[in-house]
Design goal:
The complex is a heterodimer of chains A (468) and B (402).
Chain A (H helix, E strand, L loop, with lengths): L1 H19 L9 E7 L3 E12 L2 E7 L12 E4 L2 E9 L5 H7 L4 E7 L6 E12 L1 E6 L2 E4 L7 E4 L12 E8 L3 E12 L1 E12 L4 E12 L5 E10 L22 E3 L8 E3 L2 E5 L4 E3 L3 E23 L9 E10 L13 E8 L5 E9 L7 E23 L5 E11 L5 E7 L10 E5 L4 E2 L5 E7 L3 E11 L2
Parallel strand pairs in A: 1-15, 13-22, 20-26
Antiparallel strand pairs in A: 1-2, 2-12, 3-11, 4-12, 5-11, 6-7, 6-10, 7-8, 8-9, 13-14, 14-20, 15-18, 15-19, 16-24, 17-18, 20-21, 21-24, 22-23, 24-25, 25-30, 26-29, 27-30, 28-29
Chain B lengths: L1 H15 L3 E5 L4 E7 L16 E13 L2 E7 L6 E9 L7 E5 L5 H7 L4 E7 L6 E8 L8 E3 L4 E3 L7 E4 L12 E8 L3 E24 L5 E12 L5 E10 L8 H4 L42 E5 L16 E5 L2 E12 L3 E14 L1 E5 L15 E5 L20
Parallel strand pairs in B: 1-4, 2-15, 13-16
Antiparallel strand pairs in B: 2-3, 3-13, 4-12, 5-13, 6-12, 7-8, 7-11, 8-9, 9-10, 13-14, 14-19, 15-18, 17-18, 20-21
Classes of the chains: A mainly beta (468), B mainly beta (402).
Chain lengths: 468, 402
């Protein structure tokens, strides 16, 4: 008898366990994933499904847990869609009890003294705060006395699932197994680029490795997926790499947009980065795949400081250390750069690479000039001083500026000093005199390229005639 | 019968993993370069939550089989920023880097076993008798556990009887800690010395200056500590310790780059359990705030000795050496030290003797700001950090007072 019961439970359990084994590759079929930069992906999943003739309800387990159900499209030969459902009524003890209202369950009482079990049939009358049962002609509250009572339900109620489930009802004109494709958009899958740049300031060279960084927080693993990354944001959301408030302190890294076409696959206005082999994108995984490895690109170190209009500093301020290089095929990286973070390293006295700062680049066409600030220079400083302000007329002012630049490095450096804010209020600003010629980059700012001697100082003087 | 079924069930996942998995338990040598929090300003460092970061370089000896293998790096700092990891020295290069944040936890065990067979064990409180039963998990881990047994459908731990689940195996892909793994294709079986470099949060450093005024009142001795804090649960034994001075640009939010594991706590809820005598449950206690240890440590502390006997501090044998690192300064601790988990370490940064200084009293006056009382002036020491003043050194101190 006992043996028979064991056999029975074994047979009962064998079927569902084998059908739903989690570790074996999921219910997904041939999966292709196209990932955009703005945390959005298009998933195509082709599964071979047996579809009977007539109306069928097909469930799709193992779709993205963050699926946008309104974007789902289903296609299989000889079928027409009747309806599509996304059920997120999840199975829990509370739901189990609520759905049992009006039905009969088995309760098993355990005698606390002897451990003897008594079975009774009970009807669930209501589940509001507590559970009210009818046993025979008695009305009882479940476990009102706190003594152990097991409640055994006959079956799991329909439409209660362990996970949100997508289902499609189709009308099929023929019977048989055939490939059915499911396409949907999901947030939670995104990518960006990460660059490792080893900068050799003395040799004026930079080695750049580019990595595609793919993140999956959808709650679902995509097994053995063909993966394509699109460098671009779709759907109109924009990413702002500068400061959202006011004018950025220094201009962004892209100084001259390139005009060369990179040797990459393109789709409309986007560049495509397909992964060479199929890959499994596990849930909660960050995956990095190399896409760029360039050695010995010419690069130059530089210094930049941007002074706001009428800014006078009490203490000297550091110049930004910048690294300048080109993405051109001729004397540069020779590729378009998808948006991401560039981390700079430099070798220390013992030859070990050390981190010297990072910066972000936007989508950068090939042939562009990039100037990336890595940090603040320890030894190269400037103290801007407003020496005097003279009122020339009702709306005319003369401003005398002095910039004291110091260099504590044992070698001479060239710095770019920018005075900004020249077209603030009104744009008829004139530079009356300056100690060395500047380049008026635009109406708002003018730049002096200053050579500062080793362990020395230089002063730049300028007089501005402005409306304010 | 059961045996056959079990072996059938578990044969599949094992066969799917064709790549060899090589685990590197820990580094042979390590070096830690600590960077200040660029946004900390002049405030002190928090010993329990350091907000700076560090570059960690480790060398590891790895025995690689020929062909494709997955190398797992264990024992890395928990604040590791996986996207910054650089791996060199693998003969076949790095095909793919993966960071898995799904951890083995009660909830993950349950979630990973969904639809699989588990064992339900009940212990009788009266007799101590243990009843074992097979069950299938029918619900996800969010609400609570619904089990299907040969008797019917039941909820776990709603009956008041001690009940627990046991599992046959750990679901695939669950690790004890977030793990970095790389895929590499090695041309031949070899033993490779691999260098792993990565950024990690949970570090900070600060310079603390102590100035001792000499008896003559005209010179002072300046001494500086390099204070390094490691707030990680991982320590680095016999590490080369360095600190970088200067403000480096930080673009990404490092905390958001450290992947958070999905909630690992298992929250078992039953059906409504109110009885005829229950009141509303008491509110949960407010969450404990982690204690913050903050000390403002950027100032120079000036001490003066009036006593005649010499109270010179113990002589310092090892002093951090300054190197140039591009436009930054790198201070190298000249010996190997242990950077302990949740620890703070101080080593000598610089020592300058007989620095001449000038003592004066300063006050800042504002026009149209009459004061009824006389105000005390600020006693101020002025020094120049140049070679003639014995103070030739890069010095980050903006507000020096006595």
């Amino acid at each position: 008898m006992k043996f028979a019961a064991n056999m029975l439970s074994c047979i009962m359990l064998a079927l569902p366990a084998a059908a739903l084994a989690q570790d074996s590759p999921s219910a997904q079929g041939d999966v292709s994933v196209t990932i955009y930069n703005n945390n959005l992906a298009l998933v195509q999943d082709v599964r071979t499904l047996p579809i009977a003739r007539g109306v069928n309800r097909i469930e799709f387990p193992d779709v993205s847990a963050q699926i946008r159900p309104e974007t789902v499209s289903f296609a299989a030969d000889g079928t027409a869609i009747v309806e599509q459902n996304f059920d997120f009524d999840l199975l829990s003890p509370s739901k189990l009890m609520e759905k049992a209202v009006g039905q009969v369950v088995t309760i098993v009482r355990t005698n606390p003294a002897t451990g003897a079990e008594t079975r009774e049939q009970a009807k669930v009358l209501a589940v509001n705060g507590g559970t009210v049962l009818q046993i025979g002609n008695r009305i009882e509250v479940l476990r009102d006395d706190g003594l152990p009572v097991r409640v055994v339900f006959d079956k799991v109620p329909p439409n209660l699932r362990p996970r949100p489930t997508l289902s499609v009802t189709v009308e099929s004109s023929q019977a048989g197994s055939r490939p059915a494709s499911l396409r949907y958009l999901t947030p939670g899958l995104g990518w960006s680029a990460d660059y490792v740049a080893l900068f050799d300031a003395k040799a004026g060279r930079i080695d750049v490795q580019g990595w595609i960084t793919l993140t999956n927080s959808t709650g679902t693993t995509y097994a053995n997926a063909r993966t394509l990354l699109v460098a671009g944001e779709v759907g109109g959301s924009t990413q702002n790499y500068g400061s959202p408030y006011g004018r950025p302190r220094s201009p962004g890294p892209l100084r001259k947009a390139g005009t060369e076409t990179a040797d990459r696959e393109r789709l409309g206005d986007f560049y495509l980065y397909p992964l060479a082999a199929r890959t499994t994108i596990a849930d909660r995984q960050t995956k990095q795949v190399s896409f760029l490895d360039v050695q010995g690109v010419p690069a130059k170190a530089g210094y930049e400081y941007r002074n706001d209009w009428l800014n006078s500093s009490e203490t000297p301020q550091s110049f930004s250390s910048v690294v300048k290089f080109s993405t051109s095929g001729n004397g540069g990286l020779g590729d378009a750069l998808p948006a991401g973070t560039v981390r700079f390293y430099m070798k220390d006295a013992s030859g070990a690479p050390q981190f010297i700062g990072e910066n972000a680049v936007g989508h950068t066409p090939m042939g562009s000039e990039l100037v990336l600030a890595t940090g603040e220079a320890f030894d190269v400083k400037v103290q801007p001083v407003v020496e005097k302000r003279e009122k020339l007329g009702e709306y005319r002012w003369r401003t005398t500026m002095r910039y004291d630049i110091s260099n504590a490095k044992p070698e001479a450096v060239n710095v770019d000093l920018t005075q900004a804010g020249l077209d603030w209020v009104n744009s008829d600003t004139r530079i009356v005199s300056e100690s060395q010629p500047s380049k008026r980059r635009n109406s708002d700012s003018t730049v002096w390229a200053v050579a500062v001697p080793a362990n020395g100082r230089t002063t730049v003087n300028a007089v501005f005639d402005t409306r304010y | 019968m059961r045996l056959i079924l079990a072996s059938l069930l578990f044969a599949l996942p094992a066969a799917a993993q064709a790549q060899a998995i090589v685990t590197s338990a820990g580094p042979e040598t390590s070096s830690v370069t600590v960077y200040r929090d660029p946004d900390r300003g002049e405030g002190g460092i928090s010993a329990s939550f350091p907000t700076g970061f560090a570059l960690i370089t480790e060398t590891r000896r790895i025995n690689l089989p020929a062909g494709e293998s997955i190398v797992r790096f264990e024992g890395v700092a928990d604040g590791m920023i996986a996207v910054s990891a650089v791996i060199t020295g693998l003969p076949g290069g790095v095909a793919q880097k993966n960071r898995d944040a799904r951890l083995l936890s009660p909830a993950a065990l349950l979630d990973g076993s969904l639809g699989n067979r588990v064992h339900l064990r009940r212990t009788s409180r009266a007799t101590g008798k243990i009843t074992d039963q097979d069950a299938i998990i029918r619900s996800g881990p969010d609400g609570a556990v619904v089990l299907q047994t040969s008797e019917g459908v039941e909820a776990l731990r709603c009956s008041g009887i001690p009940e627990s689940l046991s599992y046959d195996s750990v679901p695939a892909g669950l690790a004890a800690r977030p793990t970095l793994s790389v895929t590499t294709v090695s041309p031949s079986a070899t033993s490779a010395l691999v260098t792993l470099t990565y950024l990690s949060t949970g570090f900070d450093w600060s310079a603390n200056y102590v100035a001792k005024v000499a008896k003559n009142g005209r010179t002072l001795d300046l001494f500086a500590w390099l204070t390094v804090t490691n707030g990680n649960a991982s320590g680095f034994a016999d590490a080369q310790l360095m600190a970088v001075a200067g403000r480096v640009n930080k673009e990404s939010d490092y905390d958001s780059l450290i992947e958070n594991a999905p909630s690992s706590s298992l929250n078992l809820q039953c059906w409504p359990m109110a009885t005829t005598s229950t009141d509303s449950p008491p509110p949960p206690p407010p969450p404990m705030r982690a204690p913050m240890m903050m000390a403002d440590m950027s100032e120079i502390v000036v001490t003066a000795q009036r006593r005649n006997e010499s109270l010179a501090a113990a002589p310092v044998m090892k002093m951090a050496k300054q190197e140039e690192l591009g436009d930054l300064k790198l201070y190298r601790v000249p010996m190997l030290v242990d950077v302990n988990a949740h620890g703070q370490k101080q080593v000598a940064l610089l020592q300058k003797t007989a620095v001449p200084f000038h003592l004066y009293y300063a006050a800042k006056l504002w026009p149209l700001d009459p004061s009824d009382e006389s105000q005390p002036m600020t006693k101020t020491l002025r020094m120049q950090n140049r070679a003639a003043s014995n103070l030739r050194s890069g010095w980050r101190c903006r507000r020096c007072w006595g």
